[in-house]
Amino acid sequence: MTLYEEWNNYGEDSKEKSVEEYKKVVEDYLARERDVYDYLLSHRDEVVEGTISELGKRFNMNDVEFLGFVDGINSSLVAGEYNLEDFNGESVVKLEYDLAKLYWNMLDAKAEWLYGLPQWQTLLTDEERATIKRDYNKTKTVVKEKKVGRNEPCPCGSGKKYKQCCGK
After folding, report:
1. CA–CA dist 19, 32 (Å, integer)
2. Phi, psi (5° rounding) for residue 83?
3. Which helix (H) or strand (E) covers residue 50, if one does?
4. Alpha helical stretches, state H, 43-111
5. pLDDT one-digit tens code per residue, 130-166
6. What's the distance, CA 113 to chain centroid?
7. Which of 99, 105, 69 is nearest to 87 (CA)?
8. Which of 59, 52, 40 has its CA nearest to residue 99?
9. What's the whole-model pTM score?
10. Which of 38, 51, 79, 167 would you label with 143, given CA atoms 20 to 30 Å apart?
11. What is the SS3 assignment for 17?
12. Which domain of life is it from (predicted)?
């Protein structure tokens, strides 16, 4: 089983034991994940780079957990996303991230424990965070299109009336 497959099945063995044990495993991981983000945001000038195993040890995670961390930050990386399916403990990662994209992705993950970290107050202004949040919220707003009337031109561009075209 690859590291990525193990990550996708993370905590499943404890899920079979009890709900409390599963919650404990997940809460432990999320606390360590928060600690890594805490470090990355506090040391913004430093680009963290190394193998999955090295960085996992550095941040008190095993290979599977650190790959899971990379999976979470992957879409925020400046160099583009890694194909994590082929990764192993010796795979090298560079955690250089786009700050605004990272904040957006934390909002999208509904990870208040991450986008609520105090470092954001010094990294992005209140206005920048509000703008990102407003733009994010716009993507989640459903806007109904105006209903096309029977005698109006068809929206497909045929030039026919709607009732004689797509409205049949």
Report:
1. 20
2. -90, 95
3. strand 49-51
4. 52-58, 63-73, 99-108
5. 999 999 998 887 777 788 888 989 888 898 999 899 8
6. 13
7. 69
8. 40
9. 0.80
10. 167
11. helix
12. Bacteria
Q: What is the pLDDT of residues 57-74, one digit of tens each?
A: 999 999 999 999 999 999
Helices (H) and strands (E) in the chain, counts: 9, 2
Residues 6+ apart with CB under 8 A from 4: 67, 71, 84, 85, 87
* More confident of the two residues 36 and 12: 36
3-state secondary structure of 62: coil
- Assess contact for 95 and 47: CB atoms under 8 A: yes
pLDDT top residue among 117 and 10: 117
Identify the helix (H) or strand (E) that includes residue 28. helix 19-42
